[in-house]
Automatic annotation (TrEMBL):
Family: In the C-terminal section; belongs to the PPC synthetase family. In the N-terminal section; belongs to the HFCD (homo-oligomeric flavin containing Cys decarboxylase) superfamily.
Binding positions (CTP): D107, K117, F154, K172, K176
Cofactor note: Binds 1 FMN per subunit.
UniProt region (Phosphopantothenate--cysteine ligase), positions on chain: 15-236
Name of this chain's protein: Coenzyme A biosynthesis bifunctional protein CoaBC
Keywords recorded for this protein, A-Z: Decarboxylase, Flavoprotein, FMN, Ligase, Lyase, Magnesium, Metal-binding, Multifunctional enzyme
Obligatory cofactor(s): Mg(2+); FMN
Taxonomic superkingdom: Bacteria
Species of provenance: Blastococcus saxobsidens (strain DD2)
One of the record's GO cellular component terms: phosphopantothenoylcysteine decarboxylase complex
Amino acid sequence: GGAAALPSDLTGRRVVISAGGTREPLDPVRYLGNRSSGKQGWALARVAAARGAEVVLVAANVELPAPFGVRVAPVGTAEELRAAMLAEAGAGEAVADVVVMSAAVADFRPVSVAATKLKKGAASEPSAIELARNSDVLAELVTKRPPGQLVVGFAAETGDDDADVLTHARAKLARKGCDLLVVNDVSAGQVFGRADNAVVVLGAEGPDTEVPHGSKDAVAAGIWTAVSARLAPPAG
Ligand code: CTP
Ligand code: CA
């Protein structure tokens, strides 16, 4: 007796999770990056594996050790993350049941990458960085998803003069076409790199789920409960 049994609601499920933040190179030593730590994605992978899933973690520039039983596929740029996610989500006979885009994907990359280090005082000293739009991995996963696969997006939003956080998030859910959107309110600016978190899981269909403030593992558990409620019954 004692502790409640860990749910095994993800047994036999294959899940693919992106985590961390992409880096877009400028030259051999410099990049444009972001502050995503990868901790929430790591927690999602750890909890899914503990609940019985076969888990692949596509990790963009995260230095954390692989969670127990999880296969980690390291990537650097948004384009590398895109290729890895498409391959893992739709891989042959082993199509994923759930795909989760928790990585912070760079929206833009430098148009040209210098082959050698940019130098002060050089004739070609740069005065600006020209950027090109990266492709939207989540939107592409939605378009290419096999039948029955759930696609989950993440959004860090702030309220502004136009609308509150959830209004912005509902618009993003509709725009992206994913099944679920996990929303972080970052208005107070305190989520990045922190050990704890709180989210709302918005559904394209069905009710929203509020996951209360807690450790990233506790929030991951709440997210998986919302996701597994929407999974089609196991095949066979
Ligand atoms: N995302 C993605 N590919 C991109 C950008 C974002 O797959 N090139 C995914 C993120 O991993 C996340 C979701 O899209 O799951 C929402 O990311 P977000 O940055 O909030 O959305 P954007 O469409 O980039 O909108 P914004 O202009 O607000 O940044
Ligand atoms: Ca973005």
